[in-house]
């Protein structure tokens, strides 16, 4: 697929993603947590979280909705970028920090993060591909090893209420 094709997919979904984020934020998480992605190869009941992070270069705050899974009490997000050949900016910003803010439905928290390795990574990847089957084609379309990020809650936060900078 590469960066050009992945960029096309993101551009086509840009309005939808902005609307999804606004709905999630405006409702305090009561709406937007579960979304039907069957039209694009996903599941009818696909769970989404919000991540809030600071730009490592800009210092700006960003909020992004992402598909997530739960493995052994840890939240899992996938840095797929639609199969692009480069990592998503949110992933690079997380790697540059010790914690990240996460909201799931109406609950928000600060979380530490880690990346699973070896057998654990394989098992978590299989699980995430079951939750959102397009991840399989995303990985096939790039030589980049798509990162998995596992999040563990460390303290509660107020739900996200504003749009990013």
TrEMBL record:
Keywords: Oxidoreductase
NCBIfam families the record matches: hi_GC_TIGR00026
Organism phylogeny: Bacteria, Bacillati, Actinomycetota, Actinomycetes, Mycobacteriales
Domain of life, source organism: Bacteria
A Pfam family recorded for this sequence: F420H2_quin_red
GO CC entries: plasma membrane
Protein known as: Nitroreductase family deazaflavin-dependent oxidoreductase
InterPro entries assigned to the protein according to its UniProt record, in alphabetical order: F420H2_quin_Rdtase, Split_barrel_FMN-bd
GO molecular function: coenzyme F420 binding; oxidoreductase activity
Catalytic reaction(s) noted: oxidized coenzyme F420-(gamma-L-Glu)(n) + a quinol + H(+) = reduced coenzyme F420-(gamma-L-Glu)(n) + a quinone
Family the UniProt entry places it in: Belongs to the F420H(2)-dependent quinone reductase family.
């Amino acid at each position: 697929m590469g960066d050009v094709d992945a960029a096309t997919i993101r551009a086509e979904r840009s309005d939808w993603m902005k609307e999804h984020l606004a709905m999630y934020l405006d409702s305090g998480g009561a709406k937007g947590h579960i979304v039907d992605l069957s039209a694009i190869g996903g599941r009818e009941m696909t769970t989404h979280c919000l991540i809030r992070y600071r730009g490592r270069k800009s210092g700006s705050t960003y909020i992004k909705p992402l598909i997530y899974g739960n493995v052994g009490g840890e939240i899992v997000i996938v840095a797929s970028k639609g199969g692009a050949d480069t990592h998503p900016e949110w992933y690079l910003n997380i790697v540059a920090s010790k914690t990240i803010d996460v909201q799931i439905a109406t609950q928000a928290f600060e979380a530490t993060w880690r990346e699973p390795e070896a057998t654990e990574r394989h098992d978590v990847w299989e699980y995430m591909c079951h939750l959102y089957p397009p991840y399989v084609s995303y990985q096939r379309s790039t030589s980049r090893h798509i990162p998995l990020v596992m999040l563990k809650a460390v303290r509660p936060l107020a739900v996200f209420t504003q749009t990013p900078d």
